[in-house]
Here is the input.
Amino acid sequence: MGYHMGKRDLLKKDNWSIFALMIDTTKYSEDLGKHLRGILTEKGLLEGLLPGTPDIDSRWNELGPYYCADAVREYNAFPDAALAWAAYLGMAVASCWDSDWEHTSSLPYTVLQGEKGFDYMDEYISEKFLGMKPGTPEAEKTADLLRELSVQANSFMLHYGAERGSTDAYRLFLETTRVMYVFGAGLHLKELGYSFQKI
Here is the structure.
C-alpha cells in the first residue's frame, strides 16, 4: 500500500484523531461488516448479528493505535496476518470481559500482545486467553477461519476504490483492522454462549 507514516507518528494522539475525522468511513465499515457476516452465514457459523458490548468496542480506542503501529509495518509482507491478528486481539479482550473485566479492562497492549511481540501474537492469545494450545485442531480451526476472513477483508479493502498509497487507502486500513477486531471479539463471545439481543 505504500504507507509512509512512522510508528511514532501513528502513536501521537493528534494524528490518530486527524485520521478519525478526515473522511467518513461509516459506509465502508458497514459494507465490510456485511460482507464478512455473509461469509460466516454461508458457513453456517452465524445467524443474524454477532454479539458485542460497548466495553469491548471502546477498548479499541486505546489499543488500536498501538496495534496499527505494528500492523502497518508488517502489512506489505504479511497482509493476512496484519489483519487477522486484530481479530485475535478482539478475542483476547472478549475473554477478559467475560472472565474478570474489573481487573483486566485496562491491560496494556504489550500484555495482550505477549512477550514475543507481534509475530507470535496469534499463538500467545490462543494459549493465554483462549485456552488453545498452538497446533491443536481447535487452534488450527480458529486460525483457518480468521485467515479466511482476513483474506476476504484485505481483498474487499483493496477493491473499494481508494488509490494505493493515499490517505484514503490508509484510512481504510485502519478501519479494516477495527472491523476485524470487532469480529474477533464477536466470534469469541458467540463461542462463549452470548448472542445478539435487540433492545
User: Anything to note?
Assistant: The chain has one domain: 7-191.
